[in-house]
């Protein structure tokens, strides 16, 4: 009885391993950095971020000039304190907006990779830098789909 249970368990395990092997036999690899770099959304976000940073630099130039105009040490310190607080608020706002948009782009790219891989019949997608051997590189197909 014990032998038949062990044989049965062995057969079930072997069948399960066969199913795992079958499920993982169509593997795709994607160069995520290459896809991200080709993304129009990422390029637009970079330009937007650069514009915001240039705007912040212009504001800082105005702030410096305003502080330099102050005649007294107390006036300068008061103005510096006011501008420091405003600078932190502006910087946080820019960072928060950038992070939010970057997360949305990441979600979009991940969904595109998933959908395209499924449409092409792949059961698994692995980042290209992790794979030493095997898998089909679908980076080019993904880059065409990512906006």
What does this entry look like structurally?
The N and C termini lie far apart (62 Å). This protein has helices at residues 2-23, 32-38, 40-69, 73-119, 139-145, and strands at residues 27-30, 124-127, 136-137. The chain has one domain (24-145): Protein Binding, DinI Protein, Chain A, CATH 3.30.910. The chain is rod-shaped, with a radius of gyration of 28 Å. It has a 3-stranded parallel β-sheet with strand order 2-1-3. By secondary structure, it is mainly alpha-helical. Helix content is 77%, strand content 7%. It has 5 helices and 3 strands, in the order αβαααββα.
Produce a short descriptive summary.
The protein is mainly α. The chain has a single domain, classed as Protein Binding, DinI Protein, Chain A, CATH 3.30.910.20. It is 77% helix and 7% strand.
List the helices and strands and how they pair.
Elements: H1 2-23, E1 27-30, H2 32-38, H3 40-69, H4 73-119, E2 124-127, E3 136-137, H5 139-145
Parallel strand pairs: 1-2, 1-3
Helix pairs in contact: 2-5, 3-4
């Amino acid at each position: 009885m014990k032998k038949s249970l062990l044989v049965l368990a062995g057969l079930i395990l072997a069948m399960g391993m066969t199913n795992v092997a079958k499920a993982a036999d169509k593997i795709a690899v994607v160069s995520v950095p290459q896809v991200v770099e080709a993304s129009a959304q990422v390029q637009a976000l970079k330009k937007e971020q650069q514009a915001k940073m240039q705007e912040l630099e212009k504001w800082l130039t105005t702030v410096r000039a305003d502080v330099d105009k102050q005649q007294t040490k107390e006036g300068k310190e008061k103005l510096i304190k006011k501008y420091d607080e405003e600078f932190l608020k502006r910087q946080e706002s820019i960072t928060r907006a950038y992070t939010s948009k970057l997360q949305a782009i990441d979600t979009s790219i991940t969904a595109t990779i998933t959908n395209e891989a499924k449409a092409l019949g792949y059961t698994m997608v692995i980042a290209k830098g992790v794979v030493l051997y095997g898998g089909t590189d679908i980076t080019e197909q993904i880059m065409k789909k990512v906006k």
